[in-house]
Write a structure and sequence with these properties.
The protein is an all-alpha fold and 62 residues long. It has one domain. The protein has three helices and no strands.
């Protein structure tokens, strides 16, 4: 993911519902398993970890 795309991704994290986060995480995790390019696969894994971090922070904030 390019530097220009990360701000849009972080904006998504702030606005997304819990259900949206779970859905996006599941889709991205499944997508990562099909990727051949190592760099792209690492980017997708980073996205998944970031989403999981947001999910955890929301749980802890409750």
């Amino acid at each position: 993911m390019s530097r220009q795309q990360w701000p849009a991704f972080f904006a998504f994290l702030e606005k997304a519902s819990d259900e949206d986060l779970v859905s996006k995480r599941d889709r991205m995790a499944g997508f990562a398993a099909t990727l051949v390019d190592k760099g792209v696969r690492e980017d997708v894994r980073k996205i998944v970890k970031t989403i999981e971090g947001e999910m955890l922070s929301r749980l802890l904030a409750e």
